[in-house]
Write a structure and sequence with these properties.
By secondary structure, the chain is mainly alpha-helical. Helix 5 packs antiparallel against helix 6. The protein starts with a helix and ends in a 178-residue tail after the last helix. Strand 1 and strand 2 form a beta hairpin. It has a three-stranded mixed beta sheet with strand order 2-1-3.
Length: 325
């Protein structure tokens, strides 16, 4: 019996301690969130079920945190992402600056258990990601060209430009390394001295483009249209397309004199009537490639695969190339 009385007495003491804490909570609460002070009302913090409501509720289910020397309750979270949360509790509206990542706010809403805000933030994050991943347009590229000094390098490295209409643009010396230009229209564009290294140009239209001194190592041009393109530099500089994927591409009538196509994939490519004089095709895969009417004089064909390639009406007999030297 005395033990039961003692336990009841201890429970009564604990309940009185909780009541004392609750009674001491003012109507206005000062919070120190990651070093930034927030002043808000007790009713705001307890408006919705969650961690903040439990910390400052009248039932004492969870004690408030420690305080700093100014009496503000310490919360070890990011103030940048906490501010939209407390504003939402105040007004019921999600408002945040454009420089704040909604993903961070979503994580705070989950941490503090503001359940009514989570679906709205998840939708915002999805739309934010969609807008971020959207490809740039012709207007974006033209604006960047206009705003860039002639002496500065214009870079679109890793940028999504898929499907963009870039025809007839002067894109000399632009860096497109790792960019996505899939199904892009680059017909009649000037790509002289461009960097297209490891760029995705699959099924792009690059017909009639100037591609002098181009760097396109290991670029993906599968199924692309490069008809009547000019690669030849009068000064003798070679365009470098080493390791490029031109599988099924159309290069008919292109001037590719001196181009480096070492170990390139040219399976099923259409290279009819191409000027390939002094081109480097060593180790290239030309299986089922149509080379009818092409000029391969002085071309380096060492180790190239000509299985089932079409070689009719060649301007220069194949034995005059470097294949047998």
């Amino acid at each position: 019996m005395s033990q039961d009385i003692e336990e009841v007495s201890n429970d009564s003491v604990q309940m009185r301690e909780v009541e004392v804490v609750v009674k001491r909570l003012p109507k206005w609460i000062k919070l120190n969130v990651g070093g930034k002070i927030f002043m808000t009302s007790l009713s705001t913090l307890t408006k919705e079920p969650g961690m903040l409501a439990r910390m400052f509720s009248t039932d004492g289910t969870m004690d408030p945190s420690d305080t700093d020397d100014q009496g503000a309750y310490l919360i070890d979270r990011s103030p940048q992402y906490f501010e939209p949360i407390v504003n939402y509790l105040r007004s019921g509206q999600l408002i945040y600056d454009t420089n704040v990542n909604p993903q961070g706010i979503l994580e705070e809403a989950r941490f503090f258990g503001v359940e009514s805000l989570i679906p709205q933030l998840e939708d915002t994050v999805r739309r934010h990601h969609t807008a971020t991943d959207a490809p740039l347009t012709r207007r974006d590229v033209v604006t960047a060209i206009i705003q860039t000094c002639n002496l500065s390098e214009l870079r679109f490295q890793g940028i999504n430009l898929s499907g963009a209409d870039l025809r007839r643009l002067d894109l000399r010396k632009v860096n497109f390394k790792y960019a996505c230009l899939s199904r892009c229209n680059l017909s009649y564009a000037n790509l002289t001295n461009c960097c297209l290294e490891r760029c995705d140009l699959s099924h792009a239209d690059i017909s009639y483009a100037q591609m002098i001194s181009l760097k396109a190592l290991c670029a993906n041009m599968e199924g692309a249209n490069l008809q009547e393109c000019n690669f030849e530099d009068p000064t003798g500089s070679r365009s470098n397309l080493e390791g490029v994927n031109l599988k099924g591409a159309c290069l008919e009538g292109s001037n590719m004199a001196g181009v480096n196509l070492r170990v390139a994939n040219l399976k099923n490519a259409n290279m009819k009537n191409c000027n390939l004089r002094a081109a480097i095709l060593a180790g290239a895969d030309l299986e089922k490639c149509n080379l009818s009417g092409s000029d391969l004089q002085e071309a380096n064909l060492r180790g190239a695969n000509f299985k089932d390639a079409q070689l009719e009406l060649m301007l220069t007999p194949l034995h005059m190339s470097q294949a047998i030297r």
